[in-house]
Design brief:
six-stranded mixed beta sheet; Heat Shock Protein 90
Length: about 450
């Protein structure tokens, strides 16, 4: 079955991003890349540090301006990092990542620059702000740190002009000196942030490459198992009928296991390319793609195969990587079958339904993978596309759906999920239709099981 129709102009080669552009691309891991102990350590430092430095700068080494109530407010924000355990989830939920970002924007650039202006830009707060800039670039991603530093400076200056104490005008020489020191700290923060970002990216690439190499190395023992299965089937010819049947069943199960494991290896190798997706694009027919994905999937039992149904409401063509989209559908089928296996209900035809349809407008096509499995709650729905987040604790690495999202987005499409607990899940892929004005040939097989 041919699932791709291409012409000489139908294959587009997209230029690889240059290394300088890759530096600017967001990391796949969460921007703040927190761990539970890292969050707690930052929260503890915030809770203890503000009262301690209030005592130092108000009593031990008095400075022109201190504010106990602001210090207590900053300390209270740090308490949130210690009290709310869910904020330490890895990867963090979007709300918690936003809360973390806001807490440290208030505590670091806004508060430190407010104190800097209120203390007349003296030496103590010049050094404190310089240290703050380096800390801020270490605590969060360099992109957020750059934006946060600039916005924090603007907000602190406006707040100082509106509510701050009277402060003497600085001599031009001191202004210039302070500007040079702060500019140096800021530039070093950006350089160190870029270096840290590239280091994390390389570590991620090496980890994924190792996964791909290990998966590939499993091919050798699997090839041996396949040869053994064939040998067992050949030897069965000279045995008694009952023994022959038993050996045939053993050979079939062994070969089915090999096919299933090879399919899993293909999945791991594809997931290992999460940060290095191929740049080519094919003209892909959605209906043929879905049929090929179902036909090539290594179902473990006939019951699994029988519960899958394919419905073609309206075929369409799109531009994308055929092999990667096969893997996308394979990942979605695997997740749906796992969800169905977790229910107590007997399998029935249509428990896993794959629909190819018009997206509601001629420029978009839709592929829907719908199951009647265990479903998921809103908290899981908001996180399933995050890299390294998995609902299958201990048996999943959390890259499958992140890979699916990257592949779909590379074809200028979108993927979303609708699900409720005990009500199953529906993953919807929407893709831009290639040449929507061209009439499509009617496929006589409108429904396939």
């Amino acid at each position: 079955m041919s699932s791709i129709r291409t012409s000489s102009a139908g294959r587009a080669q997209l230029s690889r991003p240059k290394s300088a552009v890759k530096v600017m691309q967001p990391l796949l891991e969460p921007v703040l890349h927190p761990s539970p102990w890292r969050i707690r350590a930052l929260g503890l430092a915030t809770v203890v540090g503000h009262p301690l430095f209030y005592w130092i700068w108000a009593e031990l080494l008095p400075q022109p301006y201190e504010n106990l109530w602001m210090r207590l407010l900053m300390s209270a924000l740090g308490v949130a990092l210690l009290v709310f355990a869910s904020i330490t989830d890895t990867p963090p939920r979007a709300f918690h990542a936003t809360a973390f970002t806001v807490i440290f924007w208030i505590n670091l650039p806004f508060f430190f620059l407010w104190m800097y202006f209120c203390n007349g830009a003296n030496t103590v707060w010049l050094a404190s702000v310089s240290a703050m800039i380096l800390i801020y670039y270490h605590v969060t991603d360099w992109r957020l740190a750059t934006l946060g530093s600039l916005s924090g400076m603007a907000a602190a200056w406006l707040a100082f002009r509106a509510f701050g104490p009277a402060a003497p005008d600085l001599p031009v020489a001191q202004l210039a000196t302070n500007a040079v020191v702060l500019a140096f700290a800021w530039c070093m923060g950006i350089i160190l942030g870029l270096s840290s970002s590239n280091l994390r990216r390389e570590q991620l690439n090496h980890t994924l490459s190792t996964m791909g190499i290990m998966a590939h190395e499993l091919r050798t023992p699997l090839a041996t198992m396949s040869l053994i299965g064939d040998a067992v089937r050949n030897e069965a010819g000279g045995c008694a009928p009952d023994q022959r049947e038993a050996l045939h069943q053993l050979s079939d199960r062994l070969l089915a296991t090999v096919r299933h494991m090879n399919h899993q290896i293909d999945s791991e190798i594809a997931n290992a390319r999460l940060t290095r997706l191929p740049s080519h694009a094919d003209v892909v027919a959605a209906a043929d793609l879905v049929r090929e994905a179902v036909a090539s999937y290594p179902f473990r039992t006939e019951r699994e195969r029988d519960c899958v149904a394919v419905r073609i409401d309206a075929d369409f063509e799109f531009r994308g990587s055929h092999s990667l989209f096969i893997q996308v559908l394979s990942n979605l089928i695997k997740n749906a079958l796992r969800s169905l296996a977790a229910t107590q209900n007997a399998r029935a035809a249509g428990d896993l339904l794959i629909v190819v349809a018009d997206g509601g407008q001629r420029q978009r096509g839709r592929i829907v993978v719908r199951d009647r499995g265990v479903g998921m709650d809103p908290g899981l729905r908001s996180r399933i596309f995050q890299p390294f987040f998995s609902t299958a604790r201990g048996s999943g690495h959390g890259l499958g759906l992140a890979f699916c999202q990257r592949v779909v987005q590379s074809a200028r499409g979108t993927i979303r999920v609708e699900s409720e607990p005990a009500r199953g899940a529906a993953f919807t892929i929407e893709l831009p239709v290639l040449d929507p004005q061209r009439p499509r040939a009617q496929n006589p097989l409108q429904r396939t099981s």
